[in-house]
Specification:
Elements: H1 3-18, H2 23-32, H3 37-48, H4 52-60, H5 66-80, H6 108-117
Helix pairs in contact: 1-3, 3-4
């Protein structure tokens, strides 16, 4: 979405918010007009005065973006997975993708990870 279109949506959304229109109705109209999630976050931040966390949460958990939420959660679940030794979730921020990220886990996966990161 270009900046002019986004600014138009910010102004339109501000009026809709002021008139009491539900947030999800605003998000639905924005998405129907071709807006993406990032556009929705920016519009909510500027039109409703939300901070980034609140705007992202509102968009992510809205009925309008429920299909995207499911896809994103599946993506992160596939990326992080579970430890091959104990089944604990693996954190995507760890370098060893097949090693357990649970600090108190007695499995060899966590011990192996420690050897390489000390």
């Amino acid at each position: 979405m270009d900046e002019v279109t986004r600014q138009t949506w910010i102004e339109k959304a501000a009026l809709l918010i002021e008139s009491g229109k539900p947030m999800d109705g605003i998000l639905a109209a924005l998405r129907a007009a071709g807006g993406k999630q990032i556009d929705a976050v920016i519009v909510l931040r500027r039109a409703a005065g939300m901070d980034l966390k609140e705007a992202k949460h509102t968009v992510h958990f809205s009925a309008t973006w429920a299909d995207a939420k499911e896809r994103q959660e599946r993506f992160w679940a596939e990326l992080t997975g579970d430890c091959q030794h104990c089944g604990h979730p693996i954190g995507y921020h760890h370098l060893d993708g097949d090693k357990c990220s649970c600090k108190d886990c007695p499995c060899p996966g966590f011990e192996d990870r420690l050897k390489y990161h000390d």
